[in-house]
Amino acid sequence: MGTFREFLKQYNSVTEKCFGACVRDFTSRSVSDKEEKCSKNCLDKFLKMNQRVSLRFQEHQMIQANGQTLT
User: Fold this and answer.
1) Which domains, from first to last, does the chain contain?
2) Other C-beta atoms lying within 10 Å of the C-beta of residue 21
3) In the predicted model, what is the mean pLDDT of residues 43-50?
4) How does residue 38 score in pLDDT terms, banded at 50, 70 and 90?
5) What is the DSSP string of 2-71?
6) Residue 39 · residue 18 · CB < 8 Å
7) Share of the chain above pLDDT 70, in %
8) Degrees to nearest 5, angle at CA 31 with 26 and 37
9) Residues 6-37: pLDDT tens digits?
10) What is residue 70's predicted lDDT score, i.e. its pLDDT?
């Protein structure tokens, strides 16, 4: 359950940041093409960054594990 809660926190944080960075025109009910493209890019960057950090963390964990078994 804790993992899902963390996912929701992260999702809400990204949503809030991307919305704040991309949505500027509140005079229309529709989302402009520019706002939609910005929000998609924002989410894409976040997902790629998250994937890269996860991979680096896994690499670091493997290096530490290998170093501990040699000692």
Assistant:
1) 2-70 (1.10.287.810)
2) 13
3) 94
4) very high
5) HHHHHHHHHHHHHHHHHHHHH----SSSSPPHHHHHHHHHHHHHHHHHHHHHHHHHHHHHHHHHHHHHH-
6) yes
7) 93
8) 120
9) 989 999 999 999 999 999 999 999 999 999 99
10) 52
Contacts of 25 (CB under 8 A, 6+ apart): 32, 35
Q: Residue 22's CB: how many other CB atoms inside 10 A?
A: 19
Output the six-digit token pair for 43. 């989410």
Residue keyed to tokens 């924002």: 42
Question: What is this structure's pTM?
Answer: 0.70
Higher-pLDDT residue of 67, 19: 19
CA–CA distance, 27 with 61 (Å, rounded to integer): 50
The encoded tokens of residue 41 equal: 């890019």
